[in-house]
Amino acid sequence: MTRPSLPFLAPPGPDNSVDLPSLSTPIAQVFSPELNPHNDRALQQKTVVSWLDDNGYSDLASKVLSCGTNYAYLRCPNGHEKYAKLHCKLEFCPDCGARGSRIHKTRATRARDRLLWAPVLGYAVFTLPGDLAASHLSKDTLKRLEQEAGKIVMTHFGAAGGSNRIHFAGDALGHLQIHVNVLFALENTNGIGKVDKAILDAARDAWTVFVNSHFNRTEKTTVFHYSFATTGPKKANKIKYVFRPIIDAFKFMVLPDEDKHYIVGLRGWHNTRWFGKLSNSTYKKYLTGKGIEYQKHQNDDAYLSKICPVCGEKFRYIETVHKYDLPIYRLRRLDNDTLVDFEVFNALQTGKKSGGIFSAANETEGGLRPCSAPPQTPPKSAPVAPCFSFMS
Ligand SMILES: [Zn+2]
Ligand SMILES: [Zn+2]
C-alpha cells in the first residue's frame, strides 16, 4: 500500500519570489528558520513519532512525544529549589537532536571541563571508503574504529589523551557517512599546533593499514584531516562541533528506512569514548594533579550544577514533577530547561555580576552567553524569557 507522503517530507512548492539554487539544496540554507517548514519542531515531532509508531517502536515514539514534559525537582538541605527539565536524549528527537539543545549543551560542557585546559587542542577526522561509511557497521566495529583512532593520535601526535566521537551523517543528505572525530590534548608543543607533514603521512598510513586489515581491503590511501586550536573560543567551537548530535530529526527522516532502523538500533550505545590520561578512570586524578578544576564548567552551568548558589550545599533529587504541576508562582525561569526559586535566582544574578559562580555566562569561548539583562528583582507573575543561548 502506498502511504501518502508526510507533510514534513514533501518537497517545497514552487516559489517564484525566491531564487532557489536547487531543490536538492537543504532548504535550511535557503529560507530563514522561521519560514522553513523543516525547522518546525511540532511537524518534525509528528513525522518522527508517526514513523516510529508505524515501525514497531511505540515505546520510543512515546518517549519522543513526552520529551520535556517532566522536571526533576532538586532541593538543597536549606530548602533552596531548582527544577531541571528531563529529556528523552534520543538523537532523532527534534528537541534532543537539535544543535544547541540541552543535551548538546550538556555534552559540550562536560567535554570543556576535560579538554579546554589543553595548550593545544588537536582535532582529527578519520574517514572510511564511501561504501563502508554508508554501511551498517556493528557496535563492535564502531568501537574498534574509535580505539584505533585514539591509538594513532597518541602514537603519532604524542597526545596525552582525548575523546572520540563518531558522526553518522555528513553534509550530504539521504545516506550515512560514518567518520570518526577525535579531539585530543597536546602538551609540550610550546603552544604550537602545527605538525610536520611526515607525522600527518604516518598517521594516515597507520589508518589505511588498519582499514585494510580490519575490512580486508586494498585501499592505497584513506582520507584523514588534522587541524588544531590554541585559543579559548576556537577550542570551544571545536568541542561544540564534535559533540553535536550525531544525527538530527531532519537528517534522520530523509534517510532510507533501513538506515533509520540502523540508527534506532544504536540507541543506548555510548558514542563518546575518552582515552589515554583523559579516560573516565584517570582524568580526575590527572587534571587535579595539574591544578585544574575538572568540574568548573559544569558548576558554572545552572542546569547541571549540583551546588546550591545560595548556601553552597548540594542539591538533592526529591521527585519528578509534571510541567503542569510546577509551582510556577514561586519560581523564575533561567532558561528553557531550568527554573529556580527567587533566592537562587538572585544569588545567580549577583554571582554573574561579580564574576563569581556564574561567570561562565560571560565567557567568550563560544558557549553560554547572556541575553539582554534580565530584571534583578523577580516580577509578581510570568516567568522571564530564556536567558542563555548556546547558539552563537
Ligand atoms: Zn528528546
Ligand atoms: Zn541552598
Rounded average pLDDT: 82
CATH class of the largest domain: Alpha Beta
The percent range for strand residues is 15-25%
CATH 2nd-level architecture of the largest domain: 2-Layer Sandwich
Number of helices: 12
In sequence order, what are the helices and strands, one letter per element? HHEEHEHHEEHEHHHEHHEEEHEE
Measured between the Cα atoms of the first and last residue, the distance is 45 Å
Number of domains: 3
How many whole angstroms does the radius of gyration measure? 23 Å
Question: Which hetero ligands occur in this complex?
Answer: zinc ion
What this model shows, in words?
The chain has 392 residues and is α+β, with helices and mostly antiparallel strands. It has 3 domains: 20-65, no CATH class; 70-92 and 298-389, no CATH class; 118-247 and 265-291, Alpha-Beta Plaits (2-Layer Sandwich), CATH 3.30.70. 32% of the residues lie in helices and 16% in strands. Helix 1 packs antiparallel against helix 2 (58-65), helix 3 crosses helix 7 and helix 5 (139-157) packs antiparallel against helix 6 (197-215). Residues 1-35 and 355-392 have low confidence and may be disordered.
